[in-house]
Amino acid sequence: MNLRRRQEVVKVEKAIIGGTGVYEIGKSSQQKIKTEYGSVIVDIVKTSNGTEIAFLARHGKGHSTPPHLINYRANMKALKNLGVKYIYATGAVGSCNENFAPGDVVILKDFMDFTKTRPLTFYEGSETGVAHVAMDAPYCRNLREKFLNSAQKTGLEIKGDAVYVCTEGPRFETASEIKMYKMLGADVVGMTNVPEVVLAKELGMCYQTLGIITNWCTGIKGAVIDHDITDIVEKNKQLITETFMLALTGEELSQDNCNCKVSLLKL
């Protein structure tokens, strides 16, 4: 990786956020983006056709930050300050749906939030004001369609759509909790997609997450997590990255056919 720091912030419209096991996507330069919530290091990757794509390692390059302490607001505001409009993300998840096994890849369609202590919004009254954000379509239908089309070309198999439960972490969930989530209609469980997806929507950015299933949830098929979950991520990482790149550099992206940029209602 080229560690040269750019003196001026360039504008980049497309970004990838890497979750557990996805800490870089190729040769890049770095930019340090300052926000009111803190500074963020973002890699800038130039593709073979000259397109620049921002890459942000959600947990840090060495997985140094646990899920409940990630500075989600700084991360998302840094991408917004770069000019980002379109974001693909990965997330390592456990499965509570017997049809989705470890090693499978799913595309998130909705979420349930069971986090407890995280700042969930940019709008907390006072100077920032008060606002509500629509959640009828948390994930961008345009990015979803482009990713599925690109996956057909790269050969990446998508097992299906999934409802995601976000828990606080860093502990895994109990068998009783998983039983409850499953009864509520959950397919997969993770620790990082909320508030990331909400903040993206507040900032008017198109956002779509791909879930990489690394394990069975506690109590499902009697499984105990006794392996390194990054091993499974590694098996899928290259093909997922290729699919992201194709989706971001293929047909021109537009925000005209979704409501992502107009989901915020300020009061």
UniProtKB/TrEMBL annotation:
Alphabetized Gene3D superfamilies for the sequence: Nucleoside phosphorylase domain
Assembly and oligomerization: Homohexamer. Dimer of a homotrimer.
Amino acids binding phosphate: T20, R58, H59, T192
UniProt pathway annotation: Purine metabolism; purine nucleoside salvage
Protein name: Purine nucleoside phosphorylase
Function: Purine nucleoside phosphorylase involved in purine salvage.
Annotated residues for binding of substrate: M191
Any single biological process term in GO: L-methionine salvage from methylthioadenosine
Gene Ontology molecular function, alphabetical: S-methyl-5-thioadenosine phosphorylase activity
InterPro entries associated with the record: MTAP, Nucleoside_phosphorylase_d, Nucleoside_phosphorylase_sf
Family indicated by similarity: Belongs to the PNP/MTAP phosphorylase family. MTAP subfamily.
Keywords recorded for this protein, A-Z: Glycosyltransferase, Purine salvage, Transferase
A GO cellular-component term linked to this record: cytosol
Domain (Nucleoside phosphorylase) ranges: 15-231
HAMAP family to which the protein is assigned, alphabetical: MTAP (MF_01963)
Reactions it catalyzes: a purine D-ribonucleoside + phosphate = a purine nucleobase + alpha-D-ribose 1-phosphate
Note: Although this enzyme belongs to the family of MTA phosphorylases based on sequence homology, it lacks several conserved amino acids in the substrate binding pocket that confer specificity towards MTA.
Site (Important for substrate specificity): E173, D226
EC number of the protein: 2.4.2.1
Provenance organism: Tepidanaerobacter acetatoxydans (strain DSM 21804 / JCM 16047 / Re1)
